Amino acid sequence: MKIQERTGAGAGRSAAPAQASVGDRLPTPPRERKPALAALAVLLILVGALGATMLVLQAGDRIEVIKVEKEIPAGASVTDADVTSVMVAEDAGINYIRWEQLDTLKTMKAKTTIYADTVVQGQMFSAKSSLPEGKASVGLALKEGQYPADIKPGDIVAAYRVGGAGSSSNDSDDTDSGASGSSSGALVDGARVNTVADDSDSTVSTGSKTLTLLVDQADAAALASAAAAGEVAIVHVPGN
User: Fold this and answer.
1) How confident is the prediction for the chain on average, in pLDDT?
2) What is the torsional sign of CA 125, 118, 149, 208?
3) CATH class in words for 62-126
4) Low complexity bias: where (predicted)?
């Protein structure tokens, strides 16, 4: 009898484990929204896209212009050897001289010294040579030995009278004629070399050079007179 009672009591129990009720689960924390970061990401994307667009537009509006590779003295013109072409972004506010205008540029004169690696603009040149106030340009035909071997445009030089036929008798005349000269005994002190050209007329080079010097007007007559007599020597002075 006892065995049967125990068996009956166990028959009413379920073999499956009891499940926890829904109310016993831990609550899930809500996701934290960050609208500021999302807006910043969108802004960065827009800025990047705008920058890329501007670069593409600028690359499509480039023009070929003239750049000076060698220094151009005031009053001088450019040659093919002095310039090269570069590509720049077109800008209506900058008066670039385009590469196809090079032949026209060769006929013009530099208003002031134009230094190497300068992208030239129209206002740097004029149709006429515009010498500074109180200055004159004097041409000299010099033989080898009457000039430094490394002389070039832009150099600062002094011009001295050297011995020649009749030079001793003319020295006093030049002094009395009112030529200013300088306290150092030079005909001209501190002149700037504008142009230098080799003697290209001879099949065999004679070593002669033709120079133009920018000098004070008061010194121009004495220098031109000595140059005509072939009695001028050029030397470098401090200031180069």
Assistant:
1) 77
2) negative
3) alpha beta
4) 177-186
